[in-house]
């Protein structure tokens, strides 16, 4: 299989073009990533499982795509998972997995409808970075999780090249608004030689 969509995935683009890319990719997304050994969902799910106090508490899978991340979270023991994504075609694939309690289609930059106490944890797996969501989404994730809640997320190597991404994490940690629990570099998509940093943050 060629890496036709993976070759396009990490270029800078506006929100409308990003949504179209992922809509077009929906049918072959899982096969292409599976062929290339997509590892970050499992790494994020295991990190969250190790740190979570209550796997029965509701969690949000932000940028859930076709549901690969939801399957990883379910496999790690989480029982109630809601999914959210801007690609309707990706969400249609996620719905077929039966993993999610609720699925919500959102627009880029849309405010969360839920209250901060609604989710004990939020996962944003492979969501922030070049060709995807901007770093401003990190603030939204932190504001949207419960106090003492967890946010697990990843920056691939392309995202790590932009110092503004880790700088935003440091802003939250340095002012005492959050605590960094995990920062671990490892495989992201081995088939194309791409790695990622997985993070877990606790909101104070």
Q: How is this structure best described in words?
A:
This protein has 204 residues and is an alpha/beta fold. It has one domain: 3-Layer(aba) Sandwich (Rossmann fold), CATH 3.40.50.150. Helix content is 38%, strand content 23%. The chain contains nine helices and seven strands. The protein has helices spanning 4-9, 15-25, 29-35, 40-51, 68-75, 88-95, 136-144, 157-160, 163-174, and strands at 59-62, 81-85, 102-105, 121-124, 150-156, 178-189, 194-203. The protein has a seven-stranded mixed β-sheet with strand order 3-2-1-4-5-7-6, with helices on both faces. Helix 5 links the parallel strand 1 (59-62) and strand 2 (81-85). The longest helix is centred in the N-terminal third of the chain and has 12 residues, at 40-51. The N and C termini lie far apart (45 Å). The model has no long low-confidence stretch (mean pLDDT 88).
Catalogue the unreliable spans.
Answer: none
Decide which structural class fits the backbone. Answer: alpha/beta
**SSE pattern, N- to C-terminal:** HHHHEHEHEEHEHHEE
Strand content: 15-25%
Secondary structure elements and their pairing?
Layout: H1 4-9, H2 15-25, H3 29-35, H4 40-51, E1 59-62, H5 68-75, E2 81-85, H6 88-95, E3 102-105, E4 121-124, H7 136-144, E5 150-156, H8 157-160, H9 163-174, E6 178-189, E7 194-203
Helix pairs in contact: 4-5
């Amino acid at each position: 299989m060629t890496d036709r969509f993976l070759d396009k995935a990490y270029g800078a683009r506006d929100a409308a073009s990003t949504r179209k890319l992922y809509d077009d990719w929906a049918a072959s997304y899982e096969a292409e990533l599976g062929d290339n050994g997509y590892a970050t969902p499992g790494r994020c799910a295991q990190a969250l499982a190790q740190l979570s106090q209550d796997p029965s508490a509701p969690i949000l899978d932000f940028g859930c795509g076709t549901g690969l991340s939801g399957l990883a979270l379910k496999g790690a023991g989480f029982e109630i998972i809601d999914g959210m994504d801007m690609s309707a075609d990706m969400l249609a694939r996620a719905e077929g997995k039966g993993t999610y309690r609720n699925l919500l289609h959102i627009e880029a930059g849309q405010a969360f409808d839920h209250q901060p106490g609604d989710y004990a944890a939020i996962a944003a797996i492979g969501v922030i970075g070049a060709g995807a969501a901007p770093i401003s989404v990190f603030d939204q994730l932190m504001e949207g999780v419960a106090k003492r809640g967890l946010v697990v997320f990843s920056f691939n190597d392309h995202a790590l090249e932009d110092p503004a991404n880790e700088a935003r994490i440091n802003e939250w940690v340095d002012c005492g608004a959050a605590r960094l629990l995990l920062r671990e570099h490892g495989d992201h998509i081995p088939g194309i030689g791409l790695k990622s940093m997985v993070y877990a943050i606790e909101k104070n």
